[in-house]
Automatic annotation (TrEMBL):
Residues 27-156 form the RNase III domain. Mg(2+) binds at residues 69, 142, 145. PANTHER family: RIBONUCLEASE 3, RIBONUCLEASE III. This is Ribonuclease 3. It catalyses: Endonucleolytic cleavage to 5'-phosphomonoester. Homodimer. Belongs to the ribonuclease III family. Its cofactor is Mg(2+). The keyword Cytoplasm applies. It comes from the Bacteria. Residues 1-20 are annotated as: Disordered. Digests double-stranded RNA. Involved in the processing of primary rRNA transcript to yield the immediate precursors to the large and small rRNAs (23S and 16S). Processes some mRNAs, and tRNAs when they are encoded in the rRNA operon. Processes pre-crRNA and tracrRNA of type II CRISPR loci if present in the organism.
Length: 251
């Protein structure tokens, strides 16, 4: 009679037995779509594993894509920022920041996954699948960031950049040529950073009724800016434009 295995060994065996996985042919197809062959396909499998797919007995931190998502977000921001710096050399920081945030937000990542058709490879719990998880923006966005991290860890920045250039190609082509209203850009920046929406407050009014001057302060979690204009709307636009120019916090 064989001696019983230690409890810790039994627990590891149980986790291994229920660890979610993709069939080898699915992993191969996913790599072909991504355009990168992994030395260790397990990292790609983890990048495509949503936390809901990990059973209670498993280690969500180690087996799901959460940690890779954290890294991938940083890699994506760096590569998109580099691209904007190289291709929009006359833009100020205030012009670049909103464009960056449009291209790195969860919606942009989800769009990249749909463009490549990678959403069907994401491992989810049955309840998440039934709830439409394969088309949920946050799920797709997290998986996309995790895939970027997986590519970066095995192939470095060059490989990650190549993937992003292809996955984001339609979005790069559809970037509006004209700059949006400063208030819209500031709102997009705030949303992209996870901040509450900008708050505009009239702090003063001067001049005669036929030629008034309004003073408006725009307030964000990162700071505030004040500007004036002949109407509340114009003052708000000027304040938003000023805030966009000082988003680095070095005002």
């Amino acid at each position: 009679m064989k001696p019983a295995r230690p409890k810790r060994t039994r627990q590891r065996a149980a986790v291994k037995a229920v660890k979610p996985s993709l069939p080898p042919e699915a992993l191969k197809e996913a790599q072909e779509i991504i355009g990168f062959k992994f030395k260790d396909a397990a990292i790609l499998e983890r990048a495509l594993t949503h936390p809901s797919a990990i059973p209670p007995s498993g280690d969500t931190v180690k087996l799901s894509n959460q940690r890779l998502e954290f890294l991938g977000d940083r890699v994506l921001n760096l590569i998109i920022a580099e691209r904007l710096i190289e291709r929009r050399q006359s833009d100020s920081e205030g012009d670049l920041a909103p464009r960056l945030n449009r291209l790195v937000k969860k919606g942009a990542c989800a769009e990249a996954m749909r463009f490549l058709g990678l959403q069907r490879f994401i491992l989810l719990s049955e309840s998440e699948v039934a709830a439409g998880g394969h088309d949920r923006e946050s799920t797709l966005g997290d998986a996309c960031e995790a895939v970027i991290a997986a590519i970066y860890q095995e192939g470095g920045l060059a490989a990650a950049r190549k993937f992003i250039e292809r996955a984001w190609a339609p979005q790069f082509e559809n970037v509006p040529a004209e700059t949006k209203d400063p208030k819209t850009l500031l709102q997009e920046w705030a949303q992209g950073q996870g901040h509450p929406l900008p708050d505009y407050v009239v702090t003063g009014r001067s001049g005669p009724d036929h030629a008034p001057q309004y003073e408006v302060e725009v307030r964000l979690a990162v700071g505030k800016a004040t500007a004036t204009g002949p109407s509340k709307r114009e003052a708000e636009r000027h304040a938003a434009a000023l805030m966009l120019r000082t988003l680095t916090g070095t005002e």
